[in-house]
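Researcher: Good morning. I'm working through a list of sequences from a screen, and I'd like to move beyond sequence-only analysis. For each chain I'm collecting a predicted structure so we can compare shapes side by side. This is the next one on the list. No need for commentary yet; just the structure.
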Amino acid sequence: MLTDTNSNTFTPPSLCQTVSNPDLDRALIPQEQISHNPKSAEDSTPQMDVPTRRLTAVIGTSALHESTATTMTRIAKREKERLLRSLYPKYLRYNISRYNQFSMVTADWTLNAIPLLSIPISEFNNEITTQTINDNPSLFQIITPINIDKFELLLKTHPSQRFVKSVCKGLREGFWPWADTLLDGYPTTHDESQPSKDDVQSEFLRSQIQVEQNKDRFSHSFGSDLLPGMYSMPIHAVPKPRSTDLQMVTDHSAGRFSLNSMIPHDDIASYPLDNLRNLGEILLNLRDKIGSQVPLILFKSDVAEAYRLLPVHKKWCNAFGGRASGSLWIAFNSLVTWIARNIR
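Model: Good morning. Structure tokens for this chain:
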């Protein structure tokens, strides 16, 4: 459910210059892609009048001038790159760089990644939730199908062992999603659950709950009332994209005291994703090395129910799929990609 995992440190640098450079344009754009055989990229697109006059800082400092100049430079770079992309066939998308240039990928990111946060002492000192967990051990279990010992063994030569150990600790003890459950005004126990809209949805949700219980991801029933310290978010049955089939979703943002509202956005905003640009750069580089006659086969392997493979800490109500799920999954899967590149 995480929608923004982009990092400023992960934004690929622009390959376009602020001002026109015909030599660079001709190198980047094959002549057969340019209509009416122009002499340069500029000849095939409308000319841009990028302001170059000096701006006067009214308040008598250089800060305004520097800020304006920086903004103008950024805008010019963006426009230049956009125009270059428009001259390429659509299937190339953003892969307009030379084949031997690569953007940073998540495997590289792990080398300097900050270790994941452990559960704060203040959460451990919450006597209410501690008592509930101690009184009901069968409801709070740390279960994952991931072979943690094998995973850790394959990472023994990773340069950032602090990051590796933080991820392995999360797999063994449950991940903490950067949450503060002790925010002022938040109730100790809160029920935000909602009734199903109709019998069809109710039956579907009951069947899905049974599936989750069979996989040890949902606990057995403990009655109709929440135990002290528990929060319950609503679940819904919604149609899958381009289908009439239903899927179960949990709304972690529902209500004034939602679970997602306990997680600061800034703490989860620096976890990057590999994307089609990264894939395109690799494929173009490989094709350049082996030539056009050797066939390539690309296959995609989906990780079924990916987020639910990672356990969360017992103090996080044993619920998963919220605001921090994407960041935690990226932390784990980035190490998987490091293993694929460097070990396997």
